[in-house]
Each structure stands twice: as C-alpha cells, then as structure tokens.
Amino acid sequence: MKRRFRTTYLFAALTALCLLGGGIWALSGSSPVSRYAAAPETAKSPASPRQEQAGKPAMPVPPAASSAPALSRRVAEYHISVQLDPGTSTLTAAETVTWTHPGKNPVSDLYFHLYPNAFASDSTTFMKESGGKLRSDSMPQDGFGSITLTDVRTTDGVSLMHRMQYVQPDDGNPDDKTLIKIHLPQPVNGGESVTVKLRYEVRLPKIFARMGESGDFIMAGQWFPKLSVYEPAEARGRGEEGWNLHQYHGTSEFYSDFGIYSVAISVPANYTVGATGFPVKSPRIAGGRKIYQFYADDVHDFAWAASPDFVYAEKAYSSANVPGVRIKLYLDPLHKNLAERYFQAAEAALNAFSKWYGPYPYTTLSIVVPPKAGNGAGGMEYPTLITAFGAESGSADTSLERTVIHEIGHQFFYGMVASNEFEEAWLDESFTSYAEDRLMQKEYGIAPNLPLQANLVTKPMPLTLDTWKYGNANVYTQNVYIRGKLVLKDIEQQVGAKAMDTIMSSYARKYRFHHPGTADFQKIVEKVTKKSWQDYFDRYVYGGGAPDFTVEDITVSKSKKGGYESLTTVANKGSLYTGVSIKFTFANGSTLHKIWDGEGGKASFRLSSAAPLVSAEVDPGHEVLLENKHINNFRKAALPAAAVSRWTLSLTNAIETVLGIFVW
Predict the structure, then answer these.
(1) What confidence tens digit (pLDDT) does each residue in 425-447 have?
(2) Where in this protein does the record put region Disordered (predicted)?
C-alpha cells in the first residue's frame, strides 16, 4: 500500500489513549494552468499499434522504439490489448511479452504472477491469510474473481499450454494459483531474449483489495500476467542467481522488473480511462467503443482505472526540482470541488520529494479518486498513478492530503527504488511513511506523536521478514509501517537531521532503478557516518529488538549530615541502547539529569540532596523511540513518613498526570 492503515490503527490508537489516560495520536506527525475536460490531453510519444474495432483483442504490435535514454535495465517489454465488458465484469486481453535474461545461467522456465487468482475462492493463500479483508474493507458476497489463460505460445506459433504448471513455493497450497511456471521449448542464455504471446480473460472481483469493480468503477491493478523477477547473483546479496518466487499473500505487495509497457484499452464510449504512463494520441471511437493507447517506459507495473462518472481535471506543474509534469485528476463527482486540494498536495509532494530524493523522471502523474463503494481500491500506488481514499462526502480533513502525499512518496521508494516488497517491505513502507511525516509537518504543521505510535508496537519483530511471516496484518503493520519508520527517526536522532538527509538522499539517488536490499541501505548509513552500524542493524533491523527501561527501586533516607540520601536502581530488560537520560525530581521542585551509558543492563545512582527525592524517570523526553513499554520508566520514591506532606503528594500526583498524558 502503500495503503494507509487508518481504520485499524485509529481504533488501536483510541484504545491506547484510554489505557494511557489521554493524549492525541497523529499518525505522522511557476504559474500552472488548470484545465477541465472530458478526456486527457494528448502527449507526444512513439507511434501506437493498430487496435481491432471489436471482438477479441488482436495481438498487439510493438510501437516504434522511444528515443529517450533508458533509465533502467528494461528487462521486460509488454504489449497488451485489453477490452472491458462492464456487463460481465470481464477483461479480455492479448499480451506479447519479451524477457531479456539479466543473469548468466541458462533458464528453461518463465514464471508469471497471476494475481487475480488470489480472489478465486476462499481457499487461496491470500483469502485464507487475510480472512477476505484488507484494511477496513471486506469481500462482498459472491465477490470472487480470477484470471484464465486461454492461449500461450511462442512467436513461432508453438503452443505452451501443455507446458504450464501452477506452483506454490511458500506454502504448498494446491488451491493457490497466483504463480505459474511455463517450461520453454529451449533454454534462454544470459543476455538473450525470449518472447511469449498470451491470451487471457480476467473476471474482475468485487473491489475490497486493490483491484476489481464496484458498480461502473473499474480498478485494474495487478490485472495481467506479470513476469517474476530473475535476480542476478549480485542482487540484494544473493549467493546464486535465480527467480524470486512468491505467491500473493494476505499482507504482501509486489516486486517486478523495470521495462516498457504499450497498452491499448478498449472501453464503452462513455467511459474515461486513467492509466500508468501517457496517451500516445487522443482516444478514438469505433463501434460504440473508445480505444485508448498508453505508453510507459522505465516502470515495473501498469495499472488503469475506468468509469463513466469521472470528473477530469489536469494541471501542468514545474519547479526548480520538477522539470515538468502533467498532474491528472480522475475525481469521483463527490470530490469535484476539492480538485485544488488534490493539486496542492500533489505539487507539494512532487517538489519536496524531488528535492530530497532525486527528480521525478516521468511526464505524468495520475490521481484516481474512487467512489465510496470502491474504497478497497483506494490508498494505493502504481508507477505514475496513485489512488486516493474513496470519496465519502463533499468535504474532507487533512487525511486527503496525507493520503496523496504518502502515495506520491511511493513513486520514489516503490516506483523508482523498487524494493522487494515480498521480503523487505519496510524499505518501501517505512521509508515512505518517514517522508510523509516530514512533509506533513513542513507543509501543514502536523507533527507526529512518535512516542504514542511506539506504544502501538506491541510485538516488535525483524524488519526483513517475508511479509506473511509476521503472522497477521496487525503485526505486519506495527513493524513495516510504524517500527521501521521509528528506526529511521532513531537513526536521525543519533546522526542529526543534516546527516540523515544525506543518508536518505544518497540511498534514493544511488539505487533508483536498481532493486536494492537492506544491506545496501546499511552501506549508505555507514558511508555517510564513517562508522560501523552492524550491531545496531543486528538488534533493530535484522532483529526485533526493543529497549525496555525500568526504574527498579528507589530508597530515600535522612543523612546524618543533614539533608537526604537516595539510591536509585535502573535497568534495561530489553535490547542494548546507550546514552539514555534519567531525570530525578526532588520535593522542593528541583530536578537533576544524569546520562546512563546503558552498558551492563543495570546501574545504580546514589545522590545527596537538600530535599528528599520524589521520583525518577528514565528517558523523560521520550527520545528513545524504539522503546514500546513506557509504563515502568517512572517510579515514585518511598519517602520517609516525616517527609511526606500534602505539597509533595500533590507534586507527585501532578507528575503522574503529566506522564499519563504522554506515556501511559
């Protein structure tokens, strides 16, 4: 998702607030010309293939090659013709895909993701793991969908239908058909290419998880047979080259290679289509249908949305950091008066993220606003196209801007850096959430309540787990969205904002279009800071570490020389964390701060004071963001009876109240 986890965590936050005794949770923290029209403006691009007027889509013909320099390796090239039949909720398509072997060893099989089959029955891996739910949306009754390959053959016309086999490398579930192996007539050597022609039919599910149909609204995300990623030996620390193969899981998102997409989309004449890339010419009407032709290169996916109800708006935007991009809005009618807010959020995101993480390299950015009933398709990102949350009313709070900013942030980390979201989802979700918080505070003055968010991480686990190994969506979200972001913020606190800016910028710019792994990010951190971070990453990234500070005991006695003596014992029952502050508060209102190096797991502090010690607190400023159990950080002293007064009790109660607001 790059989809936000609003409902689940709003409820969790409210519950936490009840337990904590109060507080407010915030999940964060040129002269463009506007134009409104019924269809997108044409953009210059390569010549488009001929599309048949009606009936079964013809095999697509590749357009002339683009003269633009390649930004990526372009391992895959897709040419697709697809026809939507709203009456039967089906897509009928023909696809020609060419794969160029990026490794060295001969390859005898191609693997394709068939993501729509995740919705084929209650027995698929996705449905079993998710329980038919994603975020706050559930599968409608009889909302199943699927994809069926009707023909697969070589360019020579040799059928490969008898050479296909569904595979389930993650769980062996025979009812899961989201990954298929096609055995080739002859091996493909390193550097060589192979082309396969496919025909297929997609029965669209009812929208509840990213793709499908809701009334007249269509969201075609992860809708076509898509090649798996073949990783060379050097990729993400692999020891040997090979296919990266995973099924579609309840919490997993996607991973695919960069390439070229040329897609013809045929819809009823009254429909408007928004898609990845840009239209190579104006849509044409033939036989009562409207045919669009889109083109995109240096992207690793292609998505589109269609509806007869879209209110279309667009703006040309440029800045010092954005050479020029056409922002396109496909609004649900309920949000037609909110166009400027969408534009403003998009412009802020494009400008800031291009400055921080490298220029946005594409000429278009499309924003699709689904209807309320299609909210399951909302809050999601695809290359050059994002979806906002479903329109529920004609007004909206700043979650409108937050969602747009978050999903545009994904254009940089999911879209260009393109991490493996099956295995290292934090490299996308955590990094995007970090960027989102920063921009929401800069642009809208909304700061995140990070200590309270840390309290929501009830089960810290390694950030590099395969997504389905978190056990459920709740634990996945705690770690991949919240805890991973807190790790980045914790690194920032240690190295300073300027160095962290350099780390994030260096990482995003160096690895755009390269599929990096966590170890690559660690190398950047170490290069910028000029020191090893291995122990830290072992504890908090590769491991599920969390410090757990506690004030174990306080004793106070009168001193023979007058005044008071106190002995305070503190401990860390969790992972090592150095340089934590301890605050001592005395009955006369004075305070004393000490720094504990954290070594040894336990320490005692003996103090002499004019007034008795009232309390001690570890990390009073809540700066250790990776601690998720703050309830034992504070302790009242066991005061001698003679020292207890109504005033000191009132002070102690006041301290408890303040701490309750922010911690408990």
Answers:
(1) 999 999 999 999 999 999 999 99
(2) 40-67
Rounded-to-integer distance, Cα 57 and Cα 264, Å: 9
Q: Is residue 86 part of a domain?
A: yes
Predicted TM-score (pTM) of this structure: 0.88
Question: Which residues does the annotation place in the binding site for Zn(2+)?
Answer: 406, 410, 429
Residue set of the binding site = 406, 410, 429
255 secondary structure, DSSP code:
-
CATH number, domain with residue 463: 1.10.390.10
- Number of domain units in the chain: 3
Catalytic residue among 401, 407, 436, 617: 407
User: Of 653, 654, 255, nearest to 467 (Cα)?
Assistant: 255
Tell me, yes or no, if 481 is annotated catalytic.
yes
List pLDDT tens digits, range 275-326: 999 999 999 999 999 999 999 999 999 999 999 999 999 999 999 999 999 9
Pairing of the two strands 259-268 and 76-85: parallel
Looking from the CA of 627 toward its CB, the CA atoms found within 13 Å total 25
What residues make up the domain containing 108? 72-308
Structural domain contains residue 207: yes
**Residue 318 within any structural domain of the chain:** no
Contacts of 520 (CB under 8 A, 6+ apart): 236, 507, 511
**Exactly one of 481, 507, 540, 577 is catalytic; which is it?**
481
Same domain, residue pair 160 and 238? yes
Which tokens hold the place of 564?
């008071």
276, 308, 340 — which closes off a domain?
A: 308
Is residue 292 among the annotated active site residues? no
Helix, strand or coil for residue 120? coil
Q: Indicate whether 360 belongs to any domain.
A: no
What would the DSSP string read from start to end of 339-407? HHHHHHHHHHHHHHHHHHH-----SEEEEE--BGGGGGG-SEEETTEEE-PPB-SS---THHHHHHHHH
Among candidate residues 481, 507, 541, the one where a domain is terminated: 541
